[in-house]
Amino acid sequence: MNRRLISPVIRSFTFVLILHLAASAAFSAEASSRRRHRRTTAAAKAKRSVRRPAQTTVRPASFQKSRPAATVRASRVPARVPAVKAPVIAGGPWTSPTYADSTDGDRLEGEDLEIRRAAVEALGDFNGSVVVVDPATGRILTMVNQKVALGSGFQPCSTVKVSVALAGLSEKVIQAQSKYRVGGLRMNLTYALAHSNNYYFSTLGQKLGFERYSHYAHLFGYGEKAGLNIEGEQAGNFPSAPPKNGGVGMLTSFGEEIQQTPLQLAALISAVANGGTLYYLQYPRTPAELVNFVPRVKRKLDIDGAIPEITPGMRGAVEFGTAHRAREDGPIAGKTGTCTENHTHLGWFGSFIDVGSRKLVVVVLLTGGRPAIGPQAAGIAGDVYRLLAERKFFQAELPVTPAALLGSQLCCSR
Fold this sequence. Notes:
Blueprint: H1 3-49, H2 113-123, E1 128-134, E2 139-144, H3 146-149, H4 160-170, E3 180-182, E4 185-187, H5 189-194, H6 198-208, H7 210-219, H8 247-254, H9 262-274, E5 277-279, H10 287-291, E6 297-300, H11 307-320, E7 332-341, E8 344-355, E9 358-368, H12 374-390, H13 402-410
Antiparallel strand pairs: 1-2, 1-9, 3-4, 5-6, 7-8, 8-9
Helix pairs in contact: 2-12, 4-6, 4-7, 6-8
């Protein structure tokens, strides 16, 4: 073949080959860069996903003191992290962060500042609410996170079992000390309350039936405002028919379709603590309202015979059951609740303590990710009681006021 013809062909082929090799090298470099970027991005996302949601806590000067190191329970108080514009909600998808400034927007007028300091310190950086009530008068002593406490309510989870137990005893569907076969176990009411046995209370609900339990639930304050003329308070909700998800069994074991407010639970636990008087909760805000405060009875509940039957189970929850994190020196009785609603974990604890001449009701609600559970809420309530005991709150004599005298005559027959 003519060499003059071959030479241009070879040069063209060589040029094309060089271009191909250069393009391949560039593509390989770009692909390698993309792989490194994906690995770096994935690592960064994984690292961010385990961080706690950040918050900036700004509190009144009177609440800036941190708890002494010797009294801090590391499992209950989260470490602070730098603030970011939007919290990363790990393990979700959660629609509410686990950590937040729960005092933001609260008004302090009329609050018992000693009790509020203890509640704020115990709650720490958790996203939730703490309500403390005097069960002898119905006065709200502090309400941390007033937006949540006065809102439309949350599923009560297993705290509903207190009202279910009272209804079952009142209707003589159960006897407290009788053991019933539940699954593979035989248990009485004390064990079922202490360990929050869902099957026991689901079975009890089915024996009661929706209509009978609904009657007692409304009697105990579900579906109506717990407070008297408290600005912004909402009434929660009680369903008009058995829930579509699980029927009456889910209603009486998890509180399905009920919307309970912290104030409603505080009012019911107060009635248990004082022997059966359901007070209107009152929240005096001005000096004049404090001076003129008088307890207001909503109704007397016919549960004085049932209260001694449920109290051992509520004390058992603290001593050896689901609320053991609340265990302190004083005789605390309470009920935990844990469930998930609308991609948000809920952790409840309704409790009371009876020390000397003083009774106190503490209700804790936590919302957020996986740490928002009933046992954690119980630990926070236990810290409230402990901090108050350290500050000699329970040793102080009650002041002699018209409200105290009238309250002692209206309630507390036990």
